[in-house]
Amino acid sequence: MRDRLLSVAIYGLTTLIGLVAFLYPFFIPVVRGGAAMQGAHAADAPYFLTLLVVICFVVLLLEVQGQAVNAKLVALLGILVSINSLLRFVEIAIPGPGGVSPIFFLIIVTGYVYGGRFGFLMGAMTLIVSALITGGLGPWLPYQMMTAGWVGLTAPLCQPLARWLRAENTGREVAVLVLFGVVWGFLYGAIMNVWFWPLVTGPADQYWEPGVSLGEILRRYYAFYVATSFVWDVFGAVGNALLIAVFGLPTLRALRRFQRRFAFDYRPYRPSAA
């Protein structure tokens, strides 16, 4: 119980740190200009990145210190992160249309099967490992890590609907995950825009400026999003949906086989009586 509470506290704190990192430019005076997007968060991003990496390793150490089954899950996490990072390399080498990316498929299904903690680590570590492989390091990286982590962290929210539909290992379960993937196809792009949007300038009806009301901020951001990102994210949402629809069912069955095998193999150590 104590380990579970500690884990919830760590992930809650991580999410709070991520929200602060995204939103603090709205509450302080910022320097804005034509080149601001390239330098956005250049000063604070290394600290945010370091903090996220430290948190990921702390969580992994906590998992390994737990039951033997957790150590096996950590090993599986490493394998899946490696696979997903190679998929990201393929995505960079052979770019698909718009925001199509193959990495969110595994983030979603692993978070759904193994829980939000696993899903968060899957998302965050996929982004940093793939960035090292593809050279995608930059001030945007910690924000990508956090947002991809949120994708995996929220995947278990699909479980109550799947249980209500009695949908395990059926097309109905895949349909639930398809809908989730479509929603995050748009949310990922919408959230990621926020890391630079307060720091750049443009038409007054599409960009933030200090002193405007919350309603006006939302209206301007909506106009900005539709003009710059909506079509891109349509491709991302469709890509998520297609990958889950085609590969979802066999992947869910394979992940559950591993899950059952881990549970079966686990034998707690009990010292023999002297």
Main attributes of the structure:
disordered C terminus; mainly alpha; 274 residues
Description of the molecule:
- With 274 residues, the chain is mainly α.
- The chain has helices at 2-23, 36-39, 45-64, 68-93, 103-114, 116-134, 141-154, 159-164, 171-193, 214-228, 230-265.
- The longest helix is centred in the last third of the chain and has 36 residues, at 230-265.
- The chain is globular.
Structural class: mainly alpha
The biggest sheet amounts to: none
Helix run count: 11
Number of strands: 0
- The coarse overall form would be globular
Helix and strand succession?
Answer: HHHHHHHHHHH
The rounded distance between the terminal residues' Cα atoms is 30 Å
Uncertain runs with pLDDT below 50, 5 residues or more? 34-38, 264-274
Q: Which band does the percent of strand residues land in?
A: under 5%
Helix content: over 70%
What is the alpha-carbon Rg in Å? Answer: 20 Å
For the residues shown, what is the average pLDDT?
83
In brief:
This protein is mostly helical.
Task: Furnish the topology, listing elements before pairings.
Blueprint: H1 2-23, H2 36-39, H3 45-64, H4 68-93, H5 103-114, H6 116-134, H7 141-154, H8 159-164, H9 171-193, H10 214-228, H11 230-265
